[in-house]
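Bug #77: duplicate submission created two jobs. Keeping one. Sequence:
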Amino acid sequence: MIQSALRASIEDRAVRVGPFLAVFNERSDNVFRNYAIPDEGAEPTAAELAALVDAFHERKRTPRFEFVTPNPPVEQAIEEFGFTVDDRIVLMSVDEGDVTPPDPVPGAEITVAATDEAMWHVLRIQYQAFGETNEVIQADVDGALRSLPDGQVTVLATIDGKPAGAGLYTEPRLGMAEVVGIAVAPEFRRRHLASLITADLTKRAFAAGLQPYLQCETENEGRLYGRVGYRNVGQLVTASLTSS
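Kept job's structure:
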């Protein structure tokens, strides 16, 4: 179900290349913003993979996959073609009754980012946290704000009125929403603010009738999300082709 939701989340901005949906970011070559997801039941041929690689190279992007395992036909095909598994990311979800409120953070307040000013703060915090080299521009802010009417919820956390952290849950797909982009400004880290943001977004998702899930890349993240009540439910493989 998570794989279907991930695929549905990019359908309106993806390019179809054979049995794949590929999403390309025009402004950034960040690998996390450029990737392909295979169709359900895909059994890729070498020719189809070559066409996908060409589509990435034409845009000067690194060919990259994201897909939920187990998926033996895709895993075998991309390995034979020369793709290398970069990571196996834990997928986590939580039942509404299992959400555990984190300890309060003194001076912290979390509000929905629905204005230009708030979204500027959100994107600046996220860009810094995730190593994005581009500066935030008005087009980025406008794009983020345009997503709000479609059901995406973005929050800004402040401590004593100062922008301190951010996060969002994605536009709902198939009754599910991914909690992503949890970021805390360097000067406000180690205060458990990330747990507070995660719990806030999780509660908002349930209140909207959605099932939240998220990706966990490190043990520290696992502990953080676990404290909120999340548990492992699967694995997401990321694989790339760095030369051809």
